Automatic annotation (TrEMBL):
Natural source organism: Thermobacillus composti (strain DSM 18247 / JCM 13945 / KWC4)
Phylogenetic placement of the source organism: Bacteria, Bacillati, Bacillota, Bacilli, Bacillales
Entry-linked Pfam families: Alpha-L-AF_C (PF06964), ASD1_dom (PF22848)
Pathway: Glycan metabolism
GO MF: alpha-L-arabinofuranosidase activity
Quaternary structure annotation from Swiss-Prot or TrEMBL: Homohexamer; trimer of dimers.
Family the UniProt entry places it in: Belongs to the glycosyl hydrolase 51 family.
Record's protein name: non-reducing end alpha-L-arabinofuranosidase
GO biological process: L-arabinose metabolic process; polysaccharide catabolic process
Gene3D superfamilies the UniProt entry points to: Glycosidases, Golgi alpha-mannosidase II
Keywords: Carbohydrate metabolism, Glycosidase, Hydrolase
EC number(s) per entry: 3.2.1.55
Amino acid sequence: MIKKASVTVHPSYKIGVVDKRLFGAFLEPIGNWVYGGIYNPHHPTADDMGFRRDILDAVREFDLPALRFPGGNWVSGWDWKGSIGPLEQRRAQLDLAWFQIEPNIIGHNEYLEWTRRAGTEPMYTINLGTEGIKSAAQLVEYSVHPGGTCWSELRRKHGHPDPWPIKTWYLGNEMDGHWQIGSWEKDPVGFGIRTHEISKVIKWIDNKAETVFAGTSDHHKHFPEWEMAALEQCYESVDYVSLHHYHSVPEGDIANLLNISSVFEDYIRTTIAICDYIQTKIRTPKKMYISFDEYGAHFGRQVEVPFGRRGWHDVSKSYFQFAPRENVFKNPLDWLNGEEAGNTARFHNHQMLTALAMSSVLLTFLRHADRIKIACMTGGLRNAIAFDSKHVWKNATYYPFYQLNRLARGGMSILPVVDGPTFNTEQFALSGSNQCHAYENVQAIEAAAVHHEEKGEAVVFLINRSVEHDIAVELDVRGFEGYRLVEHLEMYTDDLTKGNSHDQPDAIIPRPNAGTRMDGGKVTALTKKLSWNVIRLAKS
């Protein structure tokens, strides 16, 4: 007997306006993301600066709204001043985050020029690991002050007469993490004070600037205490709290992979509670917003899990054991000749499942559109807009990412009510940080909806997360009086080992579902197991 679910969507269930930056991406010089990726002067499509036009064209086609860069862990050891000016005067340095040699061929101005050519908004991460207030102030002055000062005139001398259009500054990256160079793990109050002082300076240079506090990265042992202690010191001077989470689950555990939204919901709700508590405590009318500026999902391998302080595996906490790594530094310039960097294969495996997991995250963000205003998919480049040393193509993740970017931005997010089949997940602990408790009664149908009232358009996004069952969905849209069904697009595959590539670009793509009907304000649609679905309505 076929499984059934009901989804109710009403224009009165308003959450918040969807900021276009929810569909941003992230760039960091890991492997050949930069050298051999976006930059390769030997590539047939290279432009006058060595940027690959095939990748630029793909980013412009997607209409990427925003890009956070240049890191990532990498930025905490980077000297931005060593990356400006004539190439022959730039300083190569060791990258202690990813054990590479950073040649600084692509430096501060080149990153910003790439965003200009790609037509995307730059969101800049400042090094607060090995640099401090003075360096941050000089960086901002160099970047956005019109002229007449030492640093702004130096930018002009370097061939950039106009200020760069940077409005969003990230104040450090994962600074609570023990893996971070210059970590503030043991001094959250000190980091909060440092963040406050740097945010003040930035806004004194540019009073229209936005700043982002580097909140707790993933669910580590000091969450949420570290966050509360640090954020209280800078609450009134910053605009966003940064969140990061990478959801790694046991190989083949599809239920846990696609329950990613429950994990993100817990993280988001806790962070919102922290922000609202501090707002109440310091008696300010200011509301804090969220930038979920790194996220991903993949299958992981079991490694040794450090025991908790009670002698057992506590999956709500993580524990750190320090050990030096092997000192082998790779030279990214080797990748300009076509050599692929390591650890990039994960961006091309399990494409349909990765697409569903990333879509689930994006639907979670839509359901919190009142508080989450920025999000940057770590795999937005290399996973969705996919490329290797030679080619560019669209992985499966591209399509829901693209559809959400085009159909949701600027609309009013609406909270759907879902009732249908459920599934359970099991607790796991892959490592000290990749851990998760069990969940029960998770809805197999996940939904989000957006209403563009002024256009007379509404869109409902559905994921069937069931591993075994197609599910017949009855979508109640009677609140949208006078609307008709435009189309139902679905994306699924009967072979989860399949994936898109340059040679086979259409292995997994959205296709129309001609069997979907609308009658009496209700849409009936059969959703395939492990499928992505977009149902569009328009006013007659």
